[in-house]
Amino acid sequence: MARAIRQIEDNLVNSIIGEGSEFKGEFLINGLLRIDGRFKGTLETDGKVLIGQSGEATTDIKARVVVIGGTVRGNIFASERVIMLSTGRMYGNIITPSLVMEDGVVFDGNCIINKTQEE
């Protein structure tokens, strides 16, 4: 039951930075953030971050799940998983217990697959 509720919550968008929009600063949220525009700063959530195909993020991301379809410059600390779609471009480091990469990803950095939760 708890897993089903979490899956529903993962698909409910809490905040959107839309295509053509730009946000600079510190973003602390609960739930899912979708970035289709530009974001520069720091980002922290107990939920999911989705970087859309047109999204560009220059940031350090702390989240449970991160899905990259656009461009990320910075570091990702994911407590559950990072998913890089074929259109994703990552320039930085990733620390996560699980990493999924589709064919065609651009990844320039280091990755640590850490099965234990790290602060």
What does this entry look like structurally?
By secondary structure, the protein is mainly beta. The chain has one domain. 8% of the residues lie in helices and 58% in strands. Strands 1, 2, 3, 4, 5, 6, 7, 8, 9, 10, 11, 12 and 13 form a 13-stranded parallel β-sheet that branches. The longest helix has 10 residues, at 2-11. It is globular and about 30 Å long. The termini are far apart. The relative contact order is 0.13.
Count of domains? 1
By secondary-structure content and strand pairing, the structural class works out as mainly beta
**Shape, principal axes of CA atoms:** globular
Mean pLDDT across the residues is 88
Listing every helix as H and every strand as E from the N terminus to the C terminus, the arrangement reads HEEEEEEEEEEEEE
Radius of gyration using CA atoms only? 13 Å
**Which percent bin holds the helix content?**
under 10%
Biggest sheet: strands, sense, closure? 13 strands, parallel
Beta-strand content: over 45%
Enumerate the spans where pLDDT stays under 50 for 5 or more consecutive residues: none
Helix count? 1
How many β-strands, per DSSP? 13
Distance between the termini: 28 Å
